[in-house]
From TrEMBL:
GO cellular component: extracellular space
GO terms for MF: calcium ion binding; serine-type endopeptidase activity
Cysteine disulfide partners in this protein: 128-137
Species annotation: Knipowitschia caucasica
Domain named Gla: residues: 56-102
EC number: 3.4.21.22
Subcellular location: Secreted
Position of the signal peptide: 1-27
Ranges where the Peptidase S1 domain occurs: 283-528
Protein name: Coagulation factor IX
Length: 542
């Protein structure tokens, strides 16, 4: 009786549930089998209604216990403010939050070469050891151009984070892809064995040079096609050998037609012609060069009244078989009215009073003065000119070109090599006699701040100082246009042109030189020098 009542009672409850689901069936038909369609397991129910779960034991942990990082952020979701309350430190909060939001970006470790990884939100930062760089510390600085020129003998360039060495014309890369080996009998910048230059540097002067080991880099193989498109030659006027002009018009050029788009800071202004005698350049305190020791040295020769033999009035440097570079002011007559044509070029000269058998004379077919040079405005700003020879030079051990490097390379070796070499037949002292034999002198580079402070004239960025403040050693009048040459790993490169100074070897004064690095593109454009010698090349010993 009781069992039957209980059965009917249960059946009635099931019927009510079935009616609510629109699945009502008779109580006697509900069995264990079809009950599974009405009731689901706890796991299935949790999947339908998911929610963060907090670990509570029922003892009021949130009220009575201290905040827990595990409770706030690991067992349930938290926001950044809750994490900040826990850490009470901004940096630790950020580090935790970066991992909490999108995982640890430093796993697996992305940094190479023992770099330390710092996780970030969707990113990471590698802190590299001193000898490495790059996003993942993958770049070895010892293999970069910024360190010891990348190990290159001549020019260093970067290609996809790899060092790529280049050589001057007349050289090729050796098997190590760093050393440059001569490929011609008289490759540029070499001196025959046994003619090394005696150093006259003292510890004081050696320490006075600026040492900046950072070498930035250019590709020596100038893309002339791109440069032709870049260079505006519309305002450049090449001066023929027989040019005559009026004062104020001789060198008036389009001031904007510069290959480097150089802007003038300030120029030495010498309107008094008599002032040029003290500023005219300029080897005092040097020693005699041996024949063939400076084979790129050129003498610009003139016939002087009352002297049977032609004498040098300026120097120059041989760049190739047909191109010579000198100072622009050497080509202007004293009054600034005309460009002189009463001279010729001599190579292989040593003693101007003797015929030694190595001398060769050449006439000039073309004079190219830098387009922004203006003698009436400043005789020494943009003080550079090119001379094209009528016939190619017969190269020999006593007549060979000096190498020309890209802008950054030339600038860097100028500043970092302890001393460079200047040479010429100029006066042996201020207002003294000229030297009949070629003189040479090693001079250190002078910091620009010291250089500017030493002169009453303006030193523009197109110039630099070299020499000694307290020693009787300097270039002097008659050396103008000659080479300022720097030896880098056994090869000589042209880094400057003797230009001007205030007297010679005067205390607190330095020689001032044209900064050749600023004119590399112009020289390359005008001469066509690009990885090869110019036309009509002939090389013979004599």
């Amino acid at each position: 009786m009781f069992v039957d009542f209980a059965s009917r009672h249960i059946s009635g409850r099931l019927c009510v549930a079935a009616l609510l689901l629109d699945l009502c069936v008779k109580g006697e038909e509900i069995t264990q089998t079809n009950a599974e369609f009405v009731f689901v397991s706890p796991q299935t129910a949790n999947e339908v209604l998911s929610r963060p779960r907090r670990y509570n034991s029922g003892h009021l942990e949130e009220v009575l216990q201290k905040d827990s990082l595990e409770r706030e952020c690991l067992e349930e979701q938290c926001n950044m403010e809750e994490a900040r309350e826990w850490f009470e430190d901004e940096q630790k909060t950020l580090e935790f939050w970066a991992r909490y939001v999108d995982g640890d970006q430093c796993e697996p470790p992305p940094c190479q070469n023992a770099g330390k990884c710092q996780d970030g939100v969707s990113s990471y930062t590698c802190w590299c050891k001193p000898s490495f760089s790059g996003k993942n510390c993958e770049i070895v600085l010892a293999q970069q151009c910024s360190l010891d020129n990348g190990g290159c003998s001549h020019f260093c360039d970067m290609k996809q984070w790899q060092v790529e060495c280049h050589c001057a014309p007349g050289y090729k890369l050796g098997p190590d892809q760093k050393t440059c080996t001569p490929t011609e009998p008289f490759s540029c910048g070499l001196v025959k064995t046994g003619t090394t230059t005696k150093s006259i540097l003292t510890p004081r002067t050696s320490n006075s040079t600026q040492r900046n080991s950072s070498i930035q880099y250019d590709n020596y193989d100038l893309n002339l096609t791109m440069f032709y498109e870049y260079y505006d030659d519309s305002g450049v006027r090449d001066v023929p050998s027989d040019y005559q002009g009026d004062q104020g018009q001789v060198l008036e050029e389009n001031e904007g037609s510069s290959s480097d788009n150089l802007t003038l800071w300030s120029t030495p202004n010498r309107t008094d012609p008599n002032a040029q005698h003290n500023a005219d350049q300029r080897i005092v305190g040097g020693d005699e060069a041996t024949p063939g020791q400076i084979p790129w040295q050129v003498a610009l020769m003139e016939q002087r009244a009352g002297i049977l033999r032609p004498m040098p009035f300026c120097g120059a440097s041989l760049l190739s078989e047909v191109w010579v570079v000198t100072a622009a002011h050497c080509l202007i007559k004293r009054a600034g009215k005309t460009i002189r044509d009463d001279f010729f070029v001599r190579l292989g000269e040593h003693d101007v009073l003797q015929d030694e058998g190595q001398e060769r004379d050449y006439s000039v077919s073309e004079k190219l003065i830098y387009p922004n040079y203006n003698y009436t405005k400043s005789p020494y700003d943009h003080d550079i000119a090119l001379l094209r020879l009528s016939d190619p030079v017969l190269l020999s051990e006593t007549r060979r070109p000096i190498c020309l490097g890209p802008r950054t390379f030339s600038e860097t070796i100028l500043r970092t090599v302890p001393a460079s070499l200047v040479s010429g037949w100029g006066r042996l002292r201020f207002q003294g006699p000229e030297s009949p034999r070629l003189q040479k002198l090693e001079v250190p580079y002078v910091d620009r701040t010291v250089c500017k402070a030493s002169s009453r004239e303006s030193i523009t960025r197109l110039m630099f100082c070299a020499g000694y403040a307290q020693e009787q050693k300097d270039s002097c009048q008659g050396d103008s246009g000659g080479p300022h040459a720097t030896n880098y790993k056994g090869t000589w490169f042209l880094t400057g042109i003797v230009s001007w100074g205030e007297e010679c070897a005067r205390d607190g004064k330095y020689g001032v030189y044209t900064r050749i690095s600023q004119y590399y593109k112009w020289i390359a454009y005008k001469t066509g020098m690009k990885g090869k010698r110019t036309e009509r090349s002939r090389k013979v010993k004599s």
